[in-house]
Amino acid sequence: MEKNKTKLAECVDNATGVDKKEKIIDFSKIYITDRFMFPLVMSHKEIAKPFIEAALGIKIYDLKDPEQEKTEQVGIFSKSVRYDVFTQQINENGEIISSFDIEMQIVDTKELPKRARYYQSVRDTNDLRKGAMYKSLKDQYVLFICPDDIFGAKQAVYSFQNYATENKNIALNDRSFKNFYIFSNYGKLPDAHPLKPYLKYFATNTADSTETEEIDTKVKWYQADEDTQERYMTWEQEIQLAREDAAEAATEKERERSQRIIAEKDNVLAEKDRRIAELEAKLAEMQK
Q1: Which residues of 141-151 are buried (b: 16+ CB within 10 A; e: fewer)?
Q2: What is the predicted pLDDT for the residue at 32?
Q3: Residues with Cβ < 8 Å from 74, sequence gap 6 or more?
Q4: Which residue, 8, 9, 2, 10, is CA-closest to 28?
Q5: Measured on CA atoms in the order 204, 177, 48, 69, is the torsion positive or negative?
Q6: What pairing do the DSSP bridges indicate for beta strands 21-26 and 5-10?
Q7: Going by fewer Cβ within 10 Å, which terminus of the chain is more open, N or C?
Q8: What's the rounded Cα separation, in Å, for the pair 226 and 238?
Q9: Which phi and psi angles does 101 have, rounded to 5°?
Q10: Which pLDDT score, from 0 to 100, does residue 15 have?
């Protein structure tokens, strides 16, 4: 097997009518911005902690071990969420004082601000148990890392929290923060900004700081690791099968919709035929 390359066999049940295919994956091109690689690397505390500190300009005493692709759901009828990387800050007494959701979002789905809102609402609901006081809610940060400047102001960082519309100096102080980091705009940051090497690395895969060199080392290790390659192949296959299931469901839904429309039109025509038959019967009766 050629180094850093392998074959992904997308095994699909013959009953689906889809032939078995092979896809060549060059693992040397699975970079930090890949949706599989990012959670894998950022789930290391020694990677996540300095990144969060650089992104928010804070000092963290300690973090709980970051969880990759953590899933949460409020209820069985509610939409679940899956965080790329989720972790919590703890103080010197071992108490949780804040939470962080770190998302690598390559595609602009046109609803990221509302997704950030929903993520925070789910986290709050899971944090606040029955009988707990609202003041027990912890500081909460959702950090989106994106290539596209979805706000269009040519900034590298957009930090949001709630303020009074009438006076921006008055903060709501609900301790919820939504930040967006646009790595294609890394050049907008001053060279001394601690976040700049991270955004530059995300944009160019060029590591020129101690922190990004450590990230790059992790990325290269995972690229070459056969167990990771196997996990990636399984992950890719699951995504492909999920897409096919979704496409089948959409097709079936459209088929049901078409059948429903046809049935409704048939009912309308049948009703018209019935009325015409009634009128013809009345006319025939009048002509006697």
Answers
A1: bbbbbbbbbbe
A2: 97
A3: 122, 125, 126
A4: 2
A5: negative
A6: antiparallel
A7: C
A8: 18
A9: -110, 120
A10: 30
Tell me the backbone φ, ψ of residue 144, rounded to 5 degrees: -100, 130
H helix count then E strand count, the chain: 6, 9
Region 105-123: mean pLDDT is 95
Q: What are the residue ranges of helices labelled H in the chain?
A: 37-42, 45-56, 112-127, 196-204, 210-224, 226-286
% of the chain exceeding 90 in pLDDT: 66
Q: What are the start-end ranges of the H helices in 7-152?
A: 37-42, 45-56, 112-127
Q: What is the pLDDT of residue 1?
A: 46
Q: Residue 9 has which token pair? A: 């066999």
Query: Hey, what are 57's tokens?
Result: 């300009």
pLDDT digits (tens, 9 = 90+) for 195-235: 999 999 999 999 999 999 999 999 999 999 999 998 888 87
For residue 206, which amino acid is it?
A: T
114 burial (CB, 10 Å; 0-12 / 13-18 / 19+) is exposed
What confidence tier does 128 reach under pLDDT thresholds 50, 70, 90? confident
Inform me whether the pLDDT recorded for 16 exceeds 60. no
Residue type, 269: L
d(CA 236, CA 8): 8
Best CA proximity match to 174, nearest among 242, 108, 117, 95: 117
